[in-house]
């Protein structure tokens, strides 16, 4: 019987009724307060267990429960049996703890909820917003939790997730955000429907926005916040807690420094012409799911023919198209290989090969045949194989990992990347709703690379090409950070050493300021200097900052600094596990308890000791379902059967044409015709891509012009004339084409540009083409 109106797939009543989320963004730091409302409408006492995702780098700093008029604030304690003991003795208890396998999954247990009782749970965390390719700051409220694949033989029991299709999620979500910054807010965008942005003041430095009613839980809630003059280095000093012990992290001041290194243009224009590029593609079964749950979306890999029948193409592009762009943009003289993985793994070449027309064509042919058909998500073994391959002299290894992040051994994977960080850079891409932020961000951070997330209607190409530009950027080496402070103030850096710097990307440093900070005059200043070497050029970025504490930041900066140090210590503990020194774990527990920020060794525990009535009878456990991406088995079977029928008809000659394919994107069509060296051939396929007849293209060619020079100039004019809105996607391959043209030292370049403009109806200057 549906007594409470809300049921799981197993027809069990669901005690969670609604979730309310309030977001406060100050510049690039977010504070999130979630309130979860429970009600037990059954006639038995319940234990409600809710496993849900949080951002992987969130610092969870508050957990409380309200039952009737009684408010209970949880304390951070070392993981122990206090919760179980309280339940077994008939007391009400509440537990919030991080998963042992992945720091972006939490479990919330509401224990001993009597019949007819309601409980309101309040959870608070702070996190930094990541910088996107278009300078937006990304906040993501993970709503989708996909089951995580647990590889065979791995440690731990894995994360037990109760999930249902998004359309069947039995509770509601309300979401509101308040944004403030020293700089004006240009706009706020989202992958979900928002009510209009409301500015709170005339200089537009404060605004509020709300999620429109009727959110379906079919996607993570993503906000992109844009400020004017976003790339401004800043430093925020936060005063310590008056009640905390002086000299402790919470008792001292903490500074958060944000730097945006700007490299000399002369260095940035000389992209590297060497490197070993290894692309690792997830081909597990879940990559056949749509990028979002909308019927108008492509699958993540967009390859299996049945997937095309289920999901119509949209502006979201497939991984295959992205690989086409990547392979066309690689520099001559580099090496490359493509791995794909599921339950096992495959590679196109036995070892990385030199990039040439032949190897590029061979790779593209294999990519075209790829499907999401390799089973589970076992990323560890292909990574171990890649790292076991000897590095090629003078070819720095750059690893690009594309995955939906549904793995159960996140920490093991991140530790492996860190162990090999001296021999490569790792660029990671989380594809689709529910991609593990802990995995994607962790791999990039420990691998000295950059992380990107592709969800909803995002075009994958601009984000991937930005990462390729970073990979081709000369490596920044000899990075050092120095501090210049008044003599009565000393500094302890909380962040791990900076291992990578990229043009225009933010670097964060947290540091504890000890000594007589409060005694300093209002005019007292500190200075932080980051020195590094780029392509043999020594450079530095310097920031002067006031030592006066900021107002109204609470303890946000302290908690983020504590979280940063806790994550570093946890990794040290995993590396040294089994050795005699157990001091690292004790240090983590002490720091976690002191700062009120959870860790893998601690949990938030609250016991209602005021409740004099013992709860009678055995507790009934109810697992609260989370939304997941969902394709019904019936739909897959139906489409596979349809494809098999078409195949049989095709063999008998009754059905000769392939299913109608959507017209290919004109840009990708033109790109697919480019040679590895950067040039195009003068042939009918090029004429079609340019929207002309072969006769028109041949007739317009200046008499003395070389055919390939003419074809390449036409392609460049078309790109500059018609596709400037997608310049991020084709800029690198256009630079390669211009470089090829300059190497030809060909006559008639000016005549070709003029004739090409007339033929294509453009007015592109020769200089704009890089000639």
TrEMBL record:
Pfam families: VIT (PF08487), VWA_3 (PF13768). Keywords: Coiled coil. The keyword Cytoplasm does not apply. Residues 353-380 form a coiled coil. SMART domains: VIT, VWA. Residues 1-127 form the VIT domain. Residues 276-468 form the VWFA domain. InterPro entries: VIT, VWF_A, vWFA_dom_sf. This is von Willebrand factor A domain-containing protein 5A-like. It comes from Astatotilapia calliptera. The gene is VWA5A.
